[in-house]
């Protein structure tokens, strides 16, 4: 699938809590387009963030932090 992802799909793929991803979207840290109240994120942007996660740069993963859920 090459189309854009919803914020919920992107959060799941990145291992982020949806509220954390919304915060990143509103800050402009994650590039996306908003249509009414729905955020759509290009798959390339998700891959860019995944690459940053692997290098320990950029957006940290909060998947293993139970207090964040």
Notes on the structure:
The protein is α+β, with helices and mostly antiparallel strands and 69 residues long. It has one domain. Helices cover 45% and strands 13% of the residues. It contains three helices and three strands; from the N terminus they run E-H-H-E-E-H. A hairpin with a 2-residue loop joins strand 2 and strand 3. Helix 1 (7-14) crosses helix 2 (18-27). The radius of gyration is 11 Å and the shape is globular. Residues 61-69 have low confidence and may be disordered.
Strand content: 5-15%
Class by alpha and beta content: alpha+beta
- Taking strands numbered 1, 2, ... along the chain, how are they ordered across the largest sheet? 1-3-2
The SSE string, one letter per element, is EHHEEH
Number of separate strands: 3
Main sheet makeup = 3 strands, antiparallel
Low-confidence spans: 61-69
Helical stretch count?
3
Query: Radius of gyration over alpha carbons?
Result: 11 Å
Large-scale geometry? globular
CA-to-CA gap between the ends? 28 Å
- Structurally, the number of domains stands at 1
In round numbers, the mean pLDDT is: 83
- Helicity, in percent? 40-55%
Write the layout of secondary structure elements.
Layout: E1 5-6, H1 7-14, H2 18-27, E2 33-35, E3 38-41, H3 43-55
Summarize the structure in short:
The chain is an alpha+beta fold and 69 residues long.
């Amino acid at each position: 699938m090459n189309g854009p992802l919803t914020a919920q799909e992107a959060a799941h793929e990145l291992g982020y809590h949806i509220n954390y991803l919304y915060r990143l979207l509103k800050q402009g840290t994650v590039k996306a387009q908003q249509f009414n109240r729905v955020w759509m994120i290009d798959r390339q942007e998700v891959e860019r963030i995944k690459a940053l996660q692997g290098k320990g740069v950029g957006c940290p993963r909060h998947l293993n932090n139970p207090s964040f859920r």
